């Protein structure tokens, strides 16, 4: 786990340092096919593991229960937050409504 996190941060640092290089754009186009290939290899590994395949119905049920609990918990939290923290009026710049032009001070002669 630490190796994966370390490699991720190392890649982020190198990406930051090598910004603007022409070959970086080519490299970013290779990321999605590489991830697809890794997922395919993971599927082969899972499918060939007999013990895991026998446990899959039980594991799938637990995964479904965790997913539903996470979604329900998110809705409950949003409901509580919106109840205890009422929506404040948005600033005019964020509301999407056009702002009135600032009035010019009148000069008396």
User: What is the helix/strand order?
Assistant: HHHH
Identify the overall geometry: flat
Unreliable stretches: none
- Radius of gyration computed on alpha carbons: 27 Å
Oligomeric state of the chains in view:
single chain
The number of helical elements comes to 4
Give the distance, in angstroms, between the N- and C-terminal Cα atoms.
Answer: 76 Å
Q: In this structure, how is the largest beta sheet organized?
A: none
* Share of helix, binned: over 70%
Mean pLDDT across residues:
85
Structural class: mainly alpha
Strand content: under 5%
What is the count of β-strands? Answer: 0
Essential attributes:
109 residues, mainly alpha, 75% helix, flat
